[in-house]
Each structure stands twice: as C-alpha cells, then as structure tokens.
Amino acid sequence: MTNTITITPFADQKPGTSGLRKKVPVFQTPGYTEAFIQSIFDSLEGYDGATLVIGGDGRFYNREVIQTAIRMAAANGFGRVLVGQGGILSTPAASHLIRKYEAFGGLILSASHNPGGPTEDFGIKYNVANGGPAPEKITDAIYARSQVIDRYLIADFEDVDLDQIGTFEAGGMVIEVIDPVTDYAELMETLFDFDAIRTMIAGGFKVTFDAMHAVTGPYAKEILVRRLGVDPALVLNATPLEDFGGHHPDPNLVHAKALYDTMMGADAPDFGAASDGDGDRNLVIGRGVFVNPSDSLAMLAANAHLAPGYKVGLKGIARSMPTSGAADRVAEKLGVEMHETPTGWKFFGNLLDAGRCTICGEESAGTGSDHVREKDGLWAILLWLNILAVRGQSVSDIVNDHWATYGRTFYSRHDYEAIESEKANQLMQELEARFPDLPGQSVGPLTVERADSFTYHDPVDGSTSRNQGLRIFFEGGARLVFRLSGTGTSGATLRIYMERHEPDPALHQQEAQAALAPVIKAAETLAGIRERTGRDAPTVIT
Q: Which one, of 535, 518, 525, 527, lies nearest residue 416 by Cα?
C-alpha cells in the first residue's frame, strides 16, 4: 500500500556540490528526510521501473534513512533497488554499481570526512546515471522543488533485513541486498596487477592501512588482506562504526597523526595509507616521507602506464585550480591535455565522459580516474602499490626520482578560519582591485607576472564558471591563490594556497614552509592579512 503524507516545505534544503549535509537532529525532524528524498524524485523523469542504487558510509542514522529511501523508491515507481549489505557502500563503489548495472541513479548517504554520531553530521547525495554527482541543473531543480513540496509518497511494508544478502520483493519492487565489496574488488583486479603486488608483499614489503572506523574497512579486509596478503594486524580501525570511534574520519596529518607517527618511526612499514568516511579520499605516506596530494596526483599520472588498466597511456590529466601545477609538467612531458577546473568533481565528470582526461585530482586528498565518476581512495592506494611493485623502489626513491625529473613543486595551504565575513570579503575585493597594477611589481625576491580571478570555460558543455578564486603568478613558477569558503553569519574561512617550483635537486630536501617563505611573505604583503583580519597566523597549515 502506498501512502501520501502531507508536509510543509523546509527552507534549508539547498544541496551543495556533495548533496545536502546537516546535523543528524535536523534530518530526524519529522518529514525532513522524506521531503528531501521526494524533492529528488520529483525532479527526475523517466525512472518508472528503473534501478536505483542506495548505500552509505555506515554513520549514525544510515540504516534508518535507507529503510525510508527503499519504501519511498517503491512508492515512486522504481522497479528495483540495489542496496549494500548492512547499508554499506563506499562512494566510489556506489558510482561503479550505478555504471555496471546501468542504474537510473543512486542515493549516497554520507557526510564524507565529517564526524558522525547522534549530534554530528549526516548527508544525502544524488548521483546520476554516469555514476557522478548530480549536475547543478538537477540540484537547482531539487532545491526549487523542496521550496514548494507539499507531500511525499511512501510504501507501507516491513523493514528490509539489510544484513541478509538476497533478493526480496516488497511494495511491487525488487530489493537486492548485495555484498558491497565484490563488484568493486573485481573492478580493481581489472585495473591493477594483483599478482605483482602479492609477490611484493609476500617478499616482505609491509603495508599498513587506517580505515578510520569508516566505510573502507570491509574493502580493505577483502582487497588488501584476502586478495593481496597484507598482514591483517596492519589494517587498522577496519570495523565501520556509527560514530567513527569518536574520531574525525579525515585522512590528513592532523586526524591520521597516529599513522604518520608510525611511518616516521624507526621500524616503520614500507607503505602507509588511510581513507576517509565514505572512501573517496586518500592519504599516502612512505617510510619517512609524506606525499602531499598534489605531488601524488603528478606521480600517479607519470607512472600510471605501469598498471594494466592504464598501459595504453593517458588521454589527459585534470586538476582543480587550487591544486599545485606539479601534474602540469607531467602532462607536458607526456604530450597530453591538461585541464584546470574549479573545485568540484562534477567538472571532472564532463571531461571523463568526453574522453578528455584519464586521471584527475584535488589538493584536498581526492584522486581518481575514468573507472568511476567519483574520487576513489582505495584506487589511488592500489595504483601506488602497483607502481611500487613494478619499479621495485621505495616511496622515497620514487618521490625523489620524480622531483629530479620534473623539479619539486613546494606546496602548502594556510586556512584562516572564522574571520568576520565583512572583513574577509573586503580583503578579497581590495586585493582584486589592485590586480591591474600588480604585473611587474617586486614583492621581496619575487616579481609578479600576472594576476586574475579564475574563470573556467568548460570545453565539453560550453558553460562558464566565474569567480572561482584569485590567482597571483610570479616569475619563475611561484603562485598564490586566495579563496573564501563558508561565508555567512558565523564568518568565513580564508584559504591561501602557496606553491613554488624548484628545479635544482640540491634544494629539494628543504622543509616546505621554509622553501615557501618568500611566497608566504608575499601573501601577507599583498593582501594585508594581519591588518585586515587581526590574525597573526593561520588557524591550520596543511
């Protein structure tokens, strides 16, 4: 039986680039979750009898929302739902399922790397038939519908046993509870030389992986331990927990400090890695060496041909604008297209669908390829392992060889959090107003070459995205990028990205902040950060 439930709209259901994210108590408000899911369905056409993929990262409230989503899918006319056992599906695995089974789309329940728990974060994201996040025309339609929605449709049947693999029928719809790992693991086996990786590990190469009590635990157990032979004692925090063990499942040097400390120790394993809440980000650390995400993108692109899935070479490389230019030098040497896009995986999706790039990445630890339409943490880790197995070198050797070939691009991001919005906006406006006069000016040892506000012209669909960040380029390859994030009554975060290219191998072992000192000083001089914000230092340095 299908019920029609009358509701009134909620004003705050505008999805971002990664769907709608709010605190759990907000989603628990009567009718709130249902209103948003119904707004998604009401914004789509042609799905009668089609397949919908549903899964999430296992965080608190995941199971309850999946039951709701299944009943609403049945009431709205979907013919089949594929749902991960236990409600679990990593974001890249969900993208793969949508593509493999030619689903109409999918609901991914996650707030990515944000904390989970009864008072923490939850999220719902809709992905389209190519496996990627819904484009703006769909998210705009969802928001418009949410502003006027007056009812939702839901079927009346018992909860589905999410822990029991099998096929069920309810509400006139087929429900398949599937192993969340198998299809994804099989895809990885087609891309990488598992025999070579197994041989390397059997020979004593030690790998440690921190799943951060998040979604990649089951994937790591199946792929790293069972299929590749990694010591299970070195796969850490592999059981997904609703609150991620009380930790922040963000694979960076702050929240994965225990892994970093292990890899910097005297008896460190050969390779260390971590992934985030929903499995789409990665952290890579060799014995005694952290690989920053911008460098990792460049190194993966330069060596991708060593893996079977990429032996024919790359069609192109793409990076988000704030990501360093290290990958640009790889693209130039390979003679392939290089694309610089705004932040947001949907921009990569257009390029991937059009065959304009093969590998893409962001400075915030997301890397991926054309095998799915999301960033993919385990994919990046497996590609690293494939490269290490074929080259027979350490992470440190590969890093240093790369720098010797392409030069080192020193890189860092400084975040100034919770600045008064008015002051932050004024800083950006005054800085941009000076741009016409900056070329040729000296700032310490640096000379400004050019400055602009980044505008992206999508080569696939012809769309234009303006005001994506302020860029200042210096002679010799240094660059500054200024972006604002989170403007509102609680203030804004000013993000400053600094990079400097150093071709001399004798200078490659400098500490990054020291190597970037002239660029850091130029940021202060040009933007007047202390004067305009009252801040003497950034809140976070990465």
A: 535
Provide the edge-to-edge strand list for the sheet that holds 235-236: 235-236, 207-210, 271-275, 282-286, 289-291
CA 228 to chain centre: 25
Q: Which amino acid is present at 62?
A: N
From 409, 411, 410, 402, select the one nearest 333 (Cα to Cα): 402
Q: What is the rounded distance in angstroms from the CA atom of residue 455 to the CA atom of residue 438? A: 19
The number of angstroms, rounded, from the C-alpha of 32 to the middle of its chain's C-alpha atoms is 26
Query: Is residue 34 within a helix (H) or strand (E), and if so which, with residue range?
Result: helix 32-42
Could you give the residue numbers annotated as active site?
Answer: 112
- Per-residue pLDDT band at 490 (split at 50, 70, 90): low
Token pair of 538 as six digits: 């950034």
Contact 321, 469 (CB under 8 A): yes
Q: What is the mean pLDDT of residues 208-231?
A: 98
Alpha-carbon gap, residue 472 to 516, rounded angstroms: 15
Listed residue (251, 273, 363, 383) closest to 318, CA to CA: 363
CA gap 480, 519 in Å, rounded:
7
DSSP H helices, 354-504, are 377-391, 395-406, 421-433
CA atoms of 225 and 183, how far apart (whole Å): 17
Angstrom CA distances, 519 to 173, 290, 419, stand at 59, 22, 22
In this structure, the strands spanning 492-502 and 408-419 are antiparallel
The token pair at 2 is 């299908």
Report the first-to-last Cα separation within the chain, whole angstroms: 53
H-state helical runs in 78-203: 91-100, 136-146, 182-191, 194-202
Note whether 308 and 138 are within 8 A (CB): no
CA distances from 163 to 83, 143, 167, 277 (A): 10, 33, 12, 20
Q: Over 80: is that where the pLDDT of 328 sits?
A: yes
Gap between the Cα atoms of 33 and 27, Å rounded = 5
Number of neighbours of residue 376 by Cβ within 10 angstroms:
30
DSSP structure class, residue 337: E
User: Helix or strand or coil: residue 115?
Assistant: coil
- The first and second tokens of residue 501, run together, are 């290219």
Q: Which position has the token pair 């719809």?
A: 173
Main-chain phi, psi angles of 298, to 5 degrees = -65, -40
**pLDDT band, very low/low/confident/very high, at 344 (cuts 50, 70, 90):** confident
d(C-alpha 261, C-alpha 455), whole Å? 40
Beta bridge partners of 409: 501
